[in-house]
């Protein structure tokens, strides 16, 4: 992969819930191959922004562009098909399945490929080899996240950190180009936190693009080359760690926390 350009452009994004304006005209861009941080006090509109970008919510106004295409208002699977995904919490019904089963069930290579459904013997072999190929990729991914030793463990019994690793591994099975991470370190112990951050950096070097919401500002400052600060639904500031650290409006926004 050789990432280039600006895959994600958010322009004048607005989302109202009844009388509440959760996102109030936010505009920003994310550069290809970057690890971009999105921070802001509680209630700033970060999660709602993610939900509007990935089709979970339909924006009230504004536009989301991915690789030059207007994807505003598309369904989540349509957005994912284009290579833009967010991590999702393991659903309750998946908790009773093993880590391996969770991975096998992750929506795989949705982009442009249709699942072969046929009863003719020749094509059946294709299905078998596809399944084998999938299994191989699943194991590779499990090894990458050091989850292979717990492949047969029920997902519902994982620690908070292992669960986050699995959520990310599942998201990557869709073969995305860009991944949105909403507080991927919440409830993760320091050892696993280090591991998860290392994996994110490795993936970024492989050409993935990340937009990363995290409550711990120090982590964002240390790991992200570009930081966007949201406050009351708007982009308050953006820049490198030093710009953000010395930004008076940002300091003030966090004082009320
Ligand atoms: P953040 O992720 O930055 O903490 P959110 O995007 O979750 O902020 O929330 C922004 C604002 O929108 C908050 O005031 C929150 O209460 C409100 N909000 C978020 N989701 C909904 C919803 N589904 N219905 C009503 N209000 C919501
Ligand atoms: Mg949030």
Automatic annotation (TrEMBL):
GO MF annotation, one: ATP binding
InterPro entries given in the database record: AAA+_ATPase (IPR003593), ABC_AA/LPS_Transport (IPR051120), ABC_transporter-like_ATP-bd (IPR003439), ABC_transporter-like_CS (IPR017871), BCA_ABC_TP_C (IPR032823), P-loop_NTPase (IPR027417)
Keyword DNA repair part of the UniProt annotation: no
Gene Ontology, cellular component aspect: plasma membrane
Highest taxon of source: Archaea
Alphabetical keyword list: Amino-acid transport, ATP-binding, Nucleotide-binding, Transport
Record GO biological process: amino acid transport
One Pfam entry name: ABC_tran
Family annotation (PROSITE patterns): ABC_TRANSPORTER_1 (PS00211), ABC_TRANSPORTER_2 (PS50893)
Stated family: Belongs to the ABC transporter superfamily.
Function: Probable component of a branched-chain amino-acid transport system.
The name this protein goes by in its record: Probable branched-chain amino acid transport ATP-binding protein LivG
Species, as recorded: Halosegnis rubeus
